Structures are given as C-alpha cells and as structure tokens.
Amino acid sequence: MTESSLRVKVGDRAEFEKTVSVEDIARFAEVTGDTNPLHQDADYAAKTRFGECIAHGMLSAGFISAALGTKLAPGCCVVYLSQNLRFLRPVKIGDTIKAVAEVKGIEPEKRMATIETDCFNQNGEAVVKGEAVVLLDPVT
C-alpha cells in the first residue's frame, strides 16, 4: 500500500470548529455520566480556580475526533489507535474551539498515520495539544 492510496499525505490538515454552549456541556455530562459540578453548577464553579463553569476537557477531545473522523481522509474509515492530550487552558461557555489535525507521519504498509491534534480558542490560544495514531481503512 502506498501513501497515495491512503488518500492522505504528510502536511494534510483537517479542522472542525464549534462554539461551546451550556446545552453541549449538559448533553456531554448526560451521555458520559461525568456530572462533576465544575461543569454545570455555577455556585460550585465560582469557588474553584476557574471562577465559573468550564467545559469538560474531553469535549474538546471530541472535536478532535470529529476532525479526524469526518474531515481528514474522505473515502477512508479513520479508526483511533491512540491519543495523547495535554489540557492547557479551560474552555468556557461561549468559547469557539477549533480542532486542528495535521498529518505528521505515515506508515503506508500498516495503513497508519501519526497526527498532531491541537485545539485553539477564538483568540488563537492553544487549549489542548496532543498527538494521535490512527488506522486508515479505505472504504470500497
């Protein structure tokens, strides 16, 4: 298998952008069971280092997944093998988060790609930095 048959090459980028709402946080908590009051209880959150409710860190990770799964490799099924994440800044209600996935390396014989995975807020500040390894299965 060649790099071109994977439909991606080193340097290819995919992006997904979303403004985080109260409803997004509530749905994430409901689906995952993560009901930490930091995310939904304003009185509780006011007493924390953040001073207000913030989004679950893994919600931003979900935006990375959206970029990988829907934008990176048209015609391929993108399957996560691993993901490292560093959470750098809180994501607040109303923040617009852009997940950016950039191909850094490809192993064509294994149909695998190493992807830099970062999220930025509307001010261009990094909120999450990471790296993923994905499997690229062509859909025939």
Task: Give the arrangement of secondary structure elements.
Elements (H helix, E strand, L loop, with lengths): L12 E7 L2 H11 L9 H5 L10 H16 L3 E12 L8 E12 L4 E9 L5 E13 L2
Antiparallel strand pairs: 1-3, 2-5, 3-4, 4-5
Contiguous runs where pLDDT drops below 50 for at least 5 residues:
none
The amount of beta strand, in percent, is: 35-45%
Largest sheet, spatial ordering of strands: 1-3-4-5-2
Largest sheet: 5 strands, antiparallel
What does this structure look like?
28% of the residues are buried. The chain is an alpha+beta fold. It has a five-stranded antiparallel β-sheet. The radius of gyration is 17 Å and the shape is elongated. It has a domain at 4-21 and 60-138: Hotdog Thioesterase (Thiol Ester Dehydrase, Chain A, Roll), CATH 3.10.129.10. Helices cover 23% and strands 38% of the residues.
Short descriptors:
single chain, 140 residues, alpha+beta, Thiol Ester Dehydrase, Chain A, 5-stranded antiparallel beta sheet, 5 strands, 23% helix, 38% strand, elongated
Q: What's a quick, concise take on this entry?
A:
The chain is of the alpha+beta class and 140 residues long. The protein has helices at 22-32, 42-46, 57-72, and strands at residues 13-19, 76-87, 96-107, 112-120, 126-138.
